[in-house]
Batch of 2 targets.
Target 1
Amino acid sequence: MTVLELERTAPAEVKTRSHTDLYVSVGLTTVVLALLAWNITGFPTASDDEGTYLAQAWAVQHGKGLAHYTYWYDHPPLAWIQLAAGSWLPGLIAPSLLAVAAGRIAMLPLQAAGLLLVYVVGRRIGLPRWAAGLGLLTYGLSPLFLTMGRQIYLDSFAVVWTLAALALALTPRKHLWHFAAAGAAAAAAVLSKETILVILPAVLVALWQNTARSSTRPWAIGAFASGLVLVGGFYPLYALLRGELFPGAGHVSLIGAIQFQLGSRSGSGSIFTDGSGAHELLQSWLYYDSVLLVAGAAATVAGLTSRRLRPVAVAGAILIVVALRPGGYLPAMYVVQVLPFFALSIAGVIAWTVTNLRGHCRTAAVVLAVILAATVVAPRWYVGDRRALTANDNAAYVQAAQYLRAQPPSTIVVDDVLWLDCVNAGYPEDRVLWFYKLDLDTEVAARLRGGWRDVDYIVSSPAVRQDPGTLPTVTALLRNSTVIASFGPADGVIEIRQVDKEPS
Amino acid sequence: MTLAAVIMIFVSLVLAAFAAVTLWWTMHAWRTPETLAGTRFAPPDGEQHLTFSLLLPARHEKAVLEHTVERLLRSTHEGFEIIIIVGHDDPDTAAVAHKTAATAPGRILVVTDHNEHKNKPRALNTALPYVRGDVVGVFDAEDQVHPLLLEHVDHAFRATGADVVQGGVQLINFHSSWYSLQNCLEYFFWFRSRLHLHAKKGFIPLGGNTVFVRSDVLRRANGWDGTCLAEDCDLGVRLSSRGAKVVVAYDATIVTREETPHSVAALIRQRTRWHQGFLQVLRKGEWRRLPTWRSRMLARYTLTSPFLQAFSGVVIPVGVAVAIWAQLPVFVALITFLPVLPMAATLMFQIVGLHDFGRQYDLRVRWHHYAKLVLGTFPYALVLSTAALRAVWREHTGRRNWELTAHVGAHLPAEAAA
């Protein structure tokens, strides 16, 4: 009796509405996630950064601190602490995978959360269901996302936390603890990748808009600030407790690292200068997906004029301005932060056009959009997405890892991609050396009392050969070693080289 | 070392949970715009159906009594009487009371309390047989009562069918000293927010004044406990556990205005008495009769808070000091900072609260008040901890002091007559 009554009194309309959103968002996310997972091990080429973060996650898992070398506050550690929670699992199920490939699988739940949050944020800035779905697909089907979304980048963690902060700041119930959670999520974003700090104003705009004409606005702002400051404060607190907050002789420090990142890091030039690093980077992003970047930038500018779209557009606009600043440093994964906001702006502008135009204009706009989608977007994305689903760019790494697994453990110098493969294969962790650290970390150099002659093997990959001559020990190793096995095509060859201990 | 680390982690987690729950409840009213709207009170409909008997215990209060009664007489409500209770050993106050009563014959009655050991609950019980109104209201001799209050309360009783209506009380003199600022904010958060949660959850420790109870309900409950140091809290617990419906009528414009204690020592004494009273109520165990497990937990938590407060006020600073100076593993040291999180958030909300307090009561809050608030937080926590420790110590050593210890459990002759 009571059960029946309960069921009857539940408002049926509310029930179906919330469920439709659930079905649409989960359905679309599943499709995109399948595309993301398909061939995740084969494309794109494993990068040194991925290996670094994964190795740091390994260090966290094994209680060796925040990094497999001295942690020097280059980035806040929350992203790989989160990665550590999941990255051990895929390798357990499929031990033959390249370590980086296994780590990528651990990124899938995160990306699923990101896709769902794009939908939620879309709905909460007032987009109709179809437009929120369009935003999700624009984000998820972009070849840039299907490429960089697979990789182990800190930016992916940061952007998902920022989307969570936005979604919470836009809470329809205006619940005080949602605002506190929004602050905490924003702090988690910054502790995942510090550069996301620049788009915090977007979250503030969302908070400000959502509490307009609300009796609880001052409390909401207090709650947000509490969440942000108190969660964010744990990072400097960690440094303080270790005695590494302020610069000093003989130890790394948080403030010293920030000074280095802001002041000493060489810029990558202006995006507008031919031949500059930033310009080349932009070209490579445009190569993967010009549609999302160009249309997204335009939609971002247009979106600034609309109150509802403003939080998302502000995030996109700040990222554009930061990228355009001359002389700054632009990392390759920067675009990861941009994608969801561009996608939401595009969906928002399309939704605005469709809902605000009437009669023939509306029909014409819809027809134009469909034609553009079919003739401009679809062919380009088809090419890019097909590459992501079929290319096998990591064969050389996989073969090299297999070869190394079969060898008896020795002292070996590798790039960061293969570092974890060696350690997993039973090489003593302090005898597997990341090539970069030989010349830059005194603690590592001290492990080799006899200099380069203490090394048995060096694995020469494109990353190792990238800046010839800048690392003397690596140069010496490459000069005094002979190839015993090599894998892959000539331009990306990976060589296992045995070190010739006797002077030649 | 490992054991020390385990203890540190455990204590930190407990303290963090305690502070977080307290913060969660303190912020009840501002959870959503809807909850805030829910704490507002509907304006009165202009009708007057109930009659009030307003009890005014006065002991050595000749300076303020006349003024307080004068203000009460300005009430817009027609149906009320004032019963002033004076002690037989306090002729000065009695003289003022009789003089005041002569100004409004038929409205004011002076009752003399002949109990050898005087305290507030006994004074109230002395007056109970003389009560003629439908509703008993309690005020302190120094209260500034708003003329519209009774009309609001009349409406509140009728609109909600309540047995008890707790009106708002607010300390106003936040500018007097560093601790009065903290004290005012405590009242603000308690009456503006936390009390509503207690009313909603069915367990409410009532305040000492501006509290209104239906006379029949009060008589059935045998009035106040003359031996309890926190007779107000005790009455709330007993009425709650008997299923009485309690509503909170809070409106910044009609709150009863009071002043903070005149010195830190007086504040500590007052707080010691409340804390000790809470512990007595806890020991009496009436709260065990509350209908739901949740309300029993809420009761246990609220009544134990003196212990926890004493505990946290001492342990948190010690923990932080240990974390910084002792060579704890960084992970453990970070965990010892967890209780600081809700504490710092509380401070953040107090800053917002001070702003809101100034707006609601039309008071000028200047930047140096905010500075005082931030700087005064830790000293104030020490004051509260001192009071809590003192209460625990006194309760432990059986010093339930002044006139109270002699007649534990004894009922008053006046009450028996009722």
Note: The longest strand of chain B covers residues 80-87.
Target 2
Amino acid sequence: MHSDQKYWNPVLETLSQKKLKALQLKKFKRIFQWAYDRSKFHRKLYNQAGITPQDIQSFDDVRQVPIVDKSMMRDVQRKDPFPYGDNLCVSLEAVCEFRQTSGTTGQPIYQADTWQDWEWWAECWSYTLWAQGYRPHDRVFIPFGYNVFVAFWAGHYAAEKIGCEVVPGGVLDTQARILKMRELRATALMGTPTYILVMADTAKSKMNIDPSGLGILKITCAGEPGASIPGTKNRLESAWGAKVFDHAGATEIGAWSYECSAQPGGMHVNDAFFLVEIEDIDTGEIIETPERRGKMIITALDRYAQPCIRFDSKDIIEWDSKECACSRTFRLIKGGVLGRTDDITKVKGVLLSPIAIEQVVRGIEGLGDEFEVVVDKVGDIDRITLKIELLPGMEKRRSAIDQMLKDQLRLQTNLGYRLEYHEIGTLPRYNVKAKRFKDLREHS
Amino acid sequence: MEFDNNLNEISAKIQLLKKTAVELKKLGENFPALEKNIARILASLKMLELNISDIVDLSPDG
């Protein structure tokens, strides 16, 4: 068993960037031709832009290819071939997996996959898990409600592919899941950062179990950016006594990036399977230089049933200037996914990203894991209320915590906040994706 | 990299497997247990192509 091999693919993960670029261009031409030949949606889009497959010869040509966004995908679905519409590139008979997006930002998108696409999903996740140290001796517990959302389905299949023993923690409640993990001595776990924190809190407060004593060695988080936010990552690692790794993927895209065991403060983009471009939000210029934020335009280079070609993911990312200690040549994005263009909102004329608030709250000792941000208006003036929970026994430190919060929030977000303390356990708890940011201004 | 010299040979063997699988698939018409299992084998072979064969014919300097 090659458990000492540190790369899932020792060739691709160490290929020079020059060769990776050549591979990306070759694959882009292939998927573009495929979609052009088989999907009315894509052919119409590209014909309207005056682009045919023969026109794609360089990355400059790639950048002329129209960007697809979610609204365009919503427009075509629920039509024939039902329910995917005419961006489907295979017959309905070839489709064997249905998934849909969570619908957080509107009508869910339906996603079709063939068995080959599903193998590809598991392959992408295999890069992730192997890089995070998953090996055949691991017993992986997956506390996820297996359903129409892709979430940890592919993580399950990839863990099996790697040779791990997988324990599906499907319909069990949180306490039953914790007991099952203890009973079976699970060594690894997958979940959203929000839910992994809820599990730790449940174990401690309701079961008198210290999660750090359960023997979990590594946790893969996805679905939210928390595992790349230092304050949240520290809380997760400290609660579980485990290494916590970030991973990013999406239903319409695939599993496109992962943090490796070197924990470089960001994630590797799987450059062999995806073409990631960063576009300046204001000018549309493609950003090649490190440490300049923009939105991600992504192509899944090997996904065939419902191709994802130059998709506007709305994720905000930036390239990292440093190389990773793991020696992978796959590029790093600094700090993981830094936010979403549709999450960033203007308050008092200042751009506010909820992730910045999470980093501050989770970085302060004495505060609980949960928080809520409410933006409303008093007269014509925006007001931000930050609701937090003070941990029991911290009452004497409240004024110091108060000051620290205000200072850090001002420093990180350039905004002032009204702080509202709540009893521990009284703010909403979330089992999947949290909704901690509420903008009530249109209702004020 | 230790595998670089073997890539052509590995890729050739993947293509051989694929050729055999495609031939088997043709023989499997009206034989679901053969046809459907071959379809899964072909999907796995595609993963081998993505992991290995796709880089074999990249030009050495880029």
Note: The interface with chain A takes residues 1-4, 7, 39-40, 42-44, 46-47, 50-52, 54-55, 58-59, 61-62 of chain B (CB under 8 Å).
